[in-house]
Structures are given as C-alpha cells and as structure tokens.
Amino acid sequence: MSGVTPEQVAESVMAVVGGDLKRCSPFESTVANTELGDFRIELDADVLKRRGYQKYLQEIGIDLGDGQVRDNLEQVLSKVAGLIVPLELVGPPVPWTELARLDAIRRQLHQAGARGTHSSPFYAFGLHLNIEVSSLAVGNILAVLRAFLLRYEWLIEIEDVDFSRRITPYVQPYPEDYVAHVLDPGYHPDRRQLIDDFLNFTPTRNRPLDLLPLLAHLDRERVMAAPVETELIKPRPAWHYRLPNCLIDEPDWSLAVPWNHWMAVEQLAERPEALEAECRRYLDTPGGIKRWLAGILQRLWS
C-alpha cells in the first residue's frame, strides 16, 4: 500500500488487536505481542531493509559504520523511498475464523488514507494469501495445483487483475508446457519428481501461485540447490497465492472476497472425478495444449 506512514500502519493494527510498536530500523517495524501474534511493517525494498545501500557507498570510499550519521541518512532514505516504494504489512498465521479481525485492520488502514492498486498506473500492489495446505501428501498438492491451473483464467477475470500487475514479472502465468504436463491425467509424480519438474519447467517464484515456499518446506536442500531466488524463499507449509489486487482504498472491498475465490480452487481439488474431467477438457480444447502447439507452429512458419 501507499499513502500512509509506518506509524499509521502500526496504529491501525494496534487499534484492533493491541500490541507494542518496536522499530527495528527506519525501514522495518514490528507490532509485537498483539492478540493474534506479531505483525511486520516494512518498506518493500530489500536493498534498504538489508542495508544493501552501504555496499554501494563503500565502493566509492564512504563507510558509514554505525552511529548517528547512518541513522540520520536512513531517516532521509526512508522518507524519500516512501514516495515511490510501497509499504507492506505482513500478518502472523491466524485461523480463517479470525479473518474478520484482519478485515477490521484493513478498514482502519482505509480510514487512515491507505491507497491500493487502482490509485496509480504505477501501483502494481498485490494482496498475498498464504493458505496452510490441508495435507502434505503429493496427491493433495497435485490436486490443488491442477485446480488452480484450471481456474486461473477465471480468477484473472473475477479478480479483475489490474493491467499494471499483469505486465510485471511478479505474477506471470505458468508456461503452457508445464500446464499441459501437470494436467495430463497420466501424471502421477512422487515428491521428488513433483519438485524436480517444477524446478525444470518454471524455476522462479514469480508466478500467481508461488510453489517454492511449499516445495522448500518439503525438501529445502533440493530447492535451495536450484537456480531460483533462494534469498527470497521462506519455506512454509502453505500455498503462496499472490494474484489478487490490493483494493484497500475501496470501501466495499473485503479480504473475504479473494479468500472465497481461493476456496473455489480447493473445492474443485476435493472432487477428483470433476477435476480429471476438467483436465481432459482443457487439454482437448484450443485454450489448452493445442493453443501452445499452435503457437510453436506459428513461430516455426513465420
């Protein structure tokens, strides 16, 4: 989000679930000891959060070290960066039954002036949901992945995903050859093959459903040895769903909206016969593998 300061974000959290504000740096804060756990507030720029800017200064002979000079510079950097770098509020794991309380925090942020995706053509802001997997069994993971791939175009439409987000590298659709590979009803991988296939076909976290945190939870060593964004992967037993817009400045928006859209994915995954029928239908229509093959043929003949 933009339009609010880290202090206003903290106040919005504390107004609903209490807690104590702890400033880690001008770029990061924590609202600790709330009724739901700890919330993080941070400028969404790793070069600032990890003080990577110091390396660039050192390359030209400037060593800030610790102390007042560095603190003063970071205060200035924080204010300037706040004009162009979005703020991110990261919540703790909570039961879905507490979604209404998170929504109350969202309303507080709205009232404080937070702005979301539609406020500017340059705001490719998103809402990320990390939904705990119901089972770590490969069959369950594959079913949900298939259901997501089948519902992807519907999700794009019903979420009305902003153009600014569609053209960024962060939520690019899965390549069609991987989609066809996964939706093949004869595909029955074990855990190792599921991970290897993902890493071979699409070794990146920049997908609307980022599987790397979940796969790293299953086999951290295997994933971290691959050519992926290892420094950004945080292993956890959850689906990292990052497709929805952030519509925090729209008064009628609710976190329940993207949550319910995701539940349509899980509901399809729980119906194996319907899921297999949709897989076959997808592969047998121009919208699926035939569209991919047609694209290859067109490039060969052009």
Based on the model shown, name its key terms.
302 residues, alpha+beta, 2 domains
Fraction of residues in β-strands: 5-15%
**Helical residue percent band:** 40-55%
Query: What does the average pLDDT come to?
Result: 84
Main sheet specs: 4 strands, antiparallel
Number of domains: 2
Spatial order of strands in the largest sheet: 1-2-3-4
Number of DSSP helical runs:
14
Q: Give the beta-strand count.
A: 7
Low-confidence regions: 46-54, 80-84
Determine the structural class based on helices, strands and strand pairing. Answer: alpha+beta
Question: What do these coordinates show?
Answer:
- This protein has about 300 residues and is α+β, with helices and mostly antiparallel strands.
- The protein has two domains: about 1-115, no CATH class; about 115-300, no CATH class.
- About 50% of the residues lie in helices and about 10% in strands.
- The chain has 14 helices and seven strands.
- It has helices spanning about 5-15, 45-50, 55-60, 70-80, 100-110, 140-160, 165, 175-185, 190-200, 210-220, 220-225, 255-270, 270-285, 290-300; strands at about 20-25, 30, 40-45, 85-90, 130, 210, 240.
- The strands form two sheets. A four-stranded antiparallel beta sheet has the order 1-2-3-4. Strands 5-7-6 form a three-stranded antiparallel beta sheet.
- Helix 1 (about 5-15) crosses helix 5, helix 6 crosses helix 12 and helix 6 (about 140-160) packs across helix 13.
- The protein is globular and about 55 Å long.
- Mean pLDDT is about 85; it is low at about 45-55 and about 80-85.
